[in-house]
Design a protein that fits this description.
Number of strands: 13
Distance between the termini: 64 Å
Shape: elongated
Number of helices: 11
Number of domains: 2
Structural class: alpha/beta
Largest sheet: 9 strands, mixed
Mean pLDDT: 87
CATH class of the largest domain: Alpha Beta
Radius of gyration: 22 Å
Strand content: 25-35%
Helix content: 25-40%
């Protein structure tokens, strides 16, 4: 009888503590069990903070098709479908901020208060890991160099010249590669890959360096007078960016990514957006 009394007291105390859960800063504590759909027994380990209760707010540049884009005012692409699936499985409404400059997203997530995650084809790098946490990777990628079809300067040696202008998206691994491997050329950092490709097509730039899935898509769909002349096997991996102060959210997303791999959803999204090209 004494053991039973202690057990009842313990349950009552646990209930009081659960009801007394407090917010951290301006965000709201949440977790897989917070909407009644998950296992409440794991809520403490997987609890996380959200900018707005019930929402997963996402920051992206939304100009990196087929990963992400802004079609008729609506976010679209592989990363967008991925964010929506993560939100669905966590019981959260996914809300995208207006398109952000790519190189502003990591600092935004590190500072906190505006978005819960950055999902914009972020390659995992050591420099970025100093500012933010990454989830487990969800997609492998390499870099590519695009030139006008028939261009005389289509090789790395030919492009590494003082009279060549190489367009890149600012803050990307493409910019880093171009600066390291084409030191004699003029490297022009721009806001978006689309802007870079438009400049290439018009003759303003001699080449564009960007992620291979994106630059290949641009040459096939939007800028058909351009082509990928160099494929660079960098072995990059994309992951979602999360604040270092929110490890529970990283863990919750990692579980969703693992579930999506296991049940075939990730393969379905890859087939939808990349076909057999990835």
């Amino acid at each position: 009888m004494k053991k039973q009394t202690h057990a009842l007291m313990g349950l009552a105390l646990a209930a009081v503590l659960a009801l007394a859960g407090c917010n951290s800063g301006s965000g709201t504590d949440a977790g897989p069990g917070s909407d009644g759909s998950g296992d409440a027994g794991t809520e403490t380990e997987a609890s996380y903070t959200l900018v707005q209760e019930g929402q997963l707010i996402v920051a992206s540049d939304l100009d990196f098709p087929p990963l992400d884009s802004f079609e008729d005012g609506v976010p679209s692409g592989f990363d967008v479908d991925l964010s929506n699936e993560i939100g669905k499985r966590l019981g959260l409404e996914v809300v995208y901020l207006p398109p952000q400059n790519f190189d502003s997203i990591v600092p935004m997530i590190a500072q906190g208060g505006k978005a819960d995650i950055g999902n914009s084809a972020f390659s995992i790098t050591e420099d970025r890991k100093k500012e933010v946490d990454f989830t487990d990777p969800y997609l492998d990628s390499n870099l590519g160099v695009a030139v006008k079809k028939g261009a005389e300067a289509a090789t790395e040696d030919a492009l590494n010249s003082a009279d060549k202008k190489i367009a890149v998206q600012a803050g990307t691994t493409g910019e880093a590669w171009a600066r390291e491997n084409l030191p004699n050329a003029e490297i022009v950092p721009l806001t978006t890959v689309t802007e870079a490709m438009a400049g290439l097509a018009s003759g303003l730039y001699d080449a564009v360096v960007a992620d291979l899935p994106v630059i290949g898509h641009q040459c096939t769909v939007s800028f058909t007078d351009c082509e990928v002349s160099i494929e660079i096997p960098t072995g990059e991996q994309y992951a979602i960016v999360v604040s270092k102060d929110n490890p529970g959210l990283t863990a919750a997303i990692n579980q969703v990514l693992a579930d999506m791999e296991a049940d075939g959803t990730m393969d379905e999204l890859k087939q939808k957006w990349f076909g057999d090209s990835i």
